[in-house]
Structure formats: C-alpha cells, structure tokens
Specification:
Strand 7 (147-150) and strand 8 form a beta hairpin. The chain has helices spanning 2-7, 22-30, 32-35, 64-73, 76-86; strands spanning 13-17, 40-41, 47-52, 91-93, 101-115, 126-134, 147-150, 157-161, 167-172, 178-181, 193-202, 215-216. With 224 residues, it is of the alpha+beta class. 18% of the residues lie in helices and 32% in strands.
C-alpha cells in the first residue's frame, strides 16, 4: 500500500479494515465505561462532548486491555509497519500519549476541521503520523461522525470515513492534513463514538517560528 498511500488525496493516507482482531477490539471498547470518570471534556467552539485523558501519566490510568493495546501500537513492530507504509524513517512512539489514547464522543458532539499541533510539548519532536482505530460496532451512516478529509482551502471534501469497528485510518500530520468530524453526532443517547488515537514523531527539531498548536478552519460560516 505504500504507493497508494503516498498518492492519496487530499493528503497521504490509508484506510484499513480488519487490521486487528475485532473480538479483541470489542473487549477494549467494553472498558470505556470504567474509564469515563478519569476522562475530561474541554468544551470549546471547535470541540464538544469529547472525553479524553488529559494527565501526563495517562497510560497508567487506562483499563488493562486498553493499556496493552496502546503499548502494542507503540511497539517496534508497529513502528516498522508505519515506516514501511509511509516512507518516513526513524519514527518515534510517544510514551506520554500527548493528546492521544482513548477518545469518546457522545450525541451532539463534534470536532471541527483542523490540523494538529506539530511539535510535542515535552520531547519537542516533530509530529509526523496520526493513527486512528475505531471501536464502534454496528455504527450507522445516519449516526454521522464520519472522519472528513478536506482540501486545504476547504473548497472540497475528498473523503468521508465511517468510524466502524476495526477500521484504522493512518495519515501524515502536515500543514495540509485537514481532518475532523465537524457535524454533531446523531447517534442514540446510549451509544458513543469510541476510538484510540496514536501519534508518532521523528527526532528532529522544527524551527520555533513554525511551531503551532491545533489550528481550526471553517467549512462554512455556520461552523462556529
């Protein structure tokens, strides 16, 4: 998939179904209720009803299977897979899972179109790759929550990816990787959009003038 990854539009990415064992991912999903009391929502105009771990020692707060899965995604074997797929050598896993780990969004929640922060706040490494693993069994189209990939000028939606169980999205983290799920979730109140987000870096130092936090952009005037 290396060539198709590099040539994908609107930016290099790949979507894999059944990359992992679905039964094991369902077990990971089953641990989310036990973790909710440790997850925090930080509502703002660009993000709503999104639970995530915020503490630096977040890995130690995860339920057992979730912790094991995240450790496997940071393993040498998975890094080698990512390097082969993306063509980016010497990738480094993030032991702090800054901004990553389990994410859970409830009905009415959203995450507007954005590009991610580009420098790790602790290691100062350059952020290069995002990996999103979805954990949603029987997720329906009318629930919304698709991962949208847009062109940089927000003139065209190139891809909508339904966040179904055992679907993994991998993409380069750049100034052009505009993504999000900007429309409020329409799922039933007893169903949430669950995912594991992992980010990968290279041990290079970016010019301080190019460093930035997450940047959001409107698709339409009604977005904010």
């Amino acid at each position: 998939n290396k060539e198709s990854y590099a040539s994908a539009v609107p930016f290099p990415h790949a979507v894999f179904d059944n990359l992992f064992d679905s039964n094991q991912l369902l077990e990971v999903a089953s641990e989310f209720p036990s973790m909710r009391s440790k997850m925090i929502d930080k509502p703002k105009p660009a993000s709503r009803r999104k639970l995530a771990f915020r503490a630096q020692n977040k890995l130690d707060q995860f339920a057992p299977l979730t912790k094991t899965f995240c450790q496997e995604l940071n393993s040498t074997e998975f890094l080698t897979f990512l390097e082969t797929l993306t063509g980016i050598d010497n990738l480094v896993a993030d032991p702090y899972l800054e901004g990553g780990g389990p994410h859970e969004i409830s009905r009415g929640g959203f995450l507007k179109m954005h590009v991610d922060f580009n420098v790790h706040p602790i290691t100062k490494f350059d952020r290069r790759i995002n990996v999103l693993v979805y954990l949603n069994e029987n997720w329906q189209e009318d629930y919304l929550g698709h991962l949208d990939l847009w062109t940089t000028d927000m003139s065209e939606l190139n891809k909508k990816i339904l966040p179904v169980l055992n679907r993994t999205v991998i993409f380069n983290t750049t100034e052009e990787s505009w993504h999000g799920h900007p429309d409020p979730l329409n799922c039933p109140k007893d169903i949430t959009r669950k995912s594991i987000a992992m980010y990968y870096y290279t041990d290079t130092k970016m010019n301080e003038s190019n460093k930035h936090s997450t940047i959001y952009k409107k698709r339409f005037t009604k977005d904010f």
